[in-house]
Amino acid sequence: MNKRVHVAVGVIIRNQQILLAKRHGHLHQGGKWEFPGGKVEPNEPVTEALTRELQEELNINVTASSPFMTLSYDYPEKQVLLDIHLVTEFTGTESGAEGQEIRWVDIKELASLPFPDANQPIIDRLLTELAH
Ligand SMILES: Nc1nc2c([nH]c(=O)n2[C@H]2C[C@H](O)[C@@H](COP(=O)(O)OP(=O)(O)OP(=O)(O)O)O2)c(=O)[nH]1
Ligand SMILES: [Mg+2]
């Protein structure tokens, strides 16, 4: 059975830098950098999922975000719908709350890091629209 997985994704931006997390090696697309986030639960509003996932993964509380883009991508083994939001304000101090490596990266550096294949259009838009 094929069911597209709805994923809430946060592009957390501060001072021309973006907060990335490294996916654990055993996960789907493991070992690559990602924008933090995770699966939207049944009947859960996407902004709620975003807030919940960033609390769980980074121990931060999102206080301002806006929709950025949505993206469907078919991996050979999995279909995802990435629901990407810009996170422009949060409270708390970010940490890799699930033991993952995290890193602030200049927007212009994004092009040189390994991301899941689905992410290329996100990187392209961040570079053209937000880097200066
Ligand atoms: N968070 C995130 N997921 C991404 C990105 N790019 C991309 O293809 N994905 C895919 C990988 C996974 O198949 C899916 C996210 O699922 P996940 O495993 O992180 O979900 P989750 O945090 O809810 O984890 P779980 O507890 O349900 O296992 O989306 C990205 O930039 N960020
Ligand atoms: Mg996740």
From TrEMBL:
Its cofactor is Mg(2+). InterPro entries: Mutator_MutT, MutT-like, MutY_C, Nudix_hydrolase, NUDIX_hydrolase-like_dom_sf, NUDIX_hydrolase_CS, NUDIX_hydrolase_dom. Residues 3-128 form the Nudix hydrolase domain. It catalyses: 8-oxo-GTP + H2O = 8-oxo-GMP + diphosphate + H(+); 8-oxo-dGTP + H2O = 8-oxo-dGMP + diphosphate + H(+). Signal peptide: none annotated. Its EC number is 3.6.1.55. Keywords: DNA damage, DNA repair, DNA replication, Hydrolase, Magnesium, Metal-binding, Mutator protein. The keyword Nucleotidyltransferase does not apply. PANTHER family: 8-OXO-DGTP DIPHOSPHATASE (PTHR47707), NUDIX HYDROLASE FAMILY PROTEIN (PTHR47707:SF1). Belongs to the Nudix hydrolase family. NCBIfam families: mutt. This is 8-oxo-dGTP diphosphatase. It comes from Shewanella electrica. The lineage of its organism: Bacteria, Pseudomonadati, Pseudomonadota, Gammaproteobacteria, Alteromonadales. The gene is mutT.
